[in-house]
Amino acid sequence: MTLELSKIGVSYDGGGTFAVDGVGFAVGQGELVALVGESGCGKTTTLKTINRLVEPTRGTVRIGGEDTAGRDRVELRRSIGYVFQRIGLFPHLSIADNVGVVPRLLGWERGRIARRVGELLELVRLDPAEVAARMPAELSGGEQQRVGFARALAAGPSLMLLDEPFGALDPITRDELRGEFSALQKELRLTAVLVTHDMTEALLMADRIIVMRRGRIVGQGAPSELVRGAGDPYVARLMAWPARQAERLAAMIGDGGSAPG
Ligand SMILES: Nc1ncnc2c1ncn2[C@@H]1O[C@H](COP(=O)(O)OP(=O)(O)OP(=O)(O)O)[C@@H](O)[C@H]1O
Ligand SMILES: [Mg+2]
Questions:
Q1: 1-80+159-169+190-253 in CATH: which number?
Q2: HSE-up of 55 (CA within 13 Å, CB side)?
Q3: Range from 110-119, 194-203, 226-235 that averages highest in pLDDT
Q4: How far apart are CA 64 and CA 71, in angstroms?
Q5: Ligand 1 center to 10 CA (angstroms)
Q6: Whose CA is nearest to atom 7 of ligand 1?
Q7: 41: CA distance to ligand 1 center in Å?
Q8: pTM of the entire structure?
């Protein structure tokens, strides 16, 4: 599924100030684009215009070539996978009910929902027999985030929106879940927009990176282009930290001498 944002503007105060201003980019079928930038720059707002959790004040969003303004909001939202910033499971629903929430809204019959829930929990490496009946509070943060992924995938969307989906995880779980999602995304040829303020994450996962600042796009390119510091000085500054970190680690590994035998 292709996605195209064109001249998107969002004002939360009826046109006084714009949280997002003139944002446009396209995402090809099966492509993963990362939206990066510091806190408050408009990443989540931009993401939410795609499934109309936020209605753009200006501009258009097209999915598969079709303007989303003409579609039913609720139907649109259910057709797009969404992984929330800060997990966002329904605390009063069991894990199985959380994962099955969209299929249930779509009116699937119970047996089909149960089968799909089992399949998805296995896909995100949770044991259905162990977790299906538990409540979200009875899972670790990393396990809850896996459930968040399973829920987003439940109705078989071809477009996925991910808002800092790895932010709350410890580094090992984060790395593991990133790898698993990347593999899944490629296998299912999912079109995806990943919001993150972690530049290293964007560099490792994205086909293309879009850098936002104060509601606008200030740079974009393939990871290999951006890492060479192409373009805007602000973008170059954001790149400096992961590059320096990589150099230090490479030097340490190159040293070799201190590795325990
Ligand atoms: N519902 C809202 N009503 C009014 N202003 C809002 C609303 N949501 C966001 N904003 C404002 O819009 C701007 C962009 O917010 P947004 O949530 O898109 O940032 P972000 O880039 O996702 O930041 P973070 O990395 O902290 O999640 C901020 O100034 C924020 O205060
Ligand atoms: Mg945000």
A1: 3.40.50.300
A2: 10
A3: 110-119
A4: 12
A5: 10
A6: 12
A7: 7
A8: 0.89
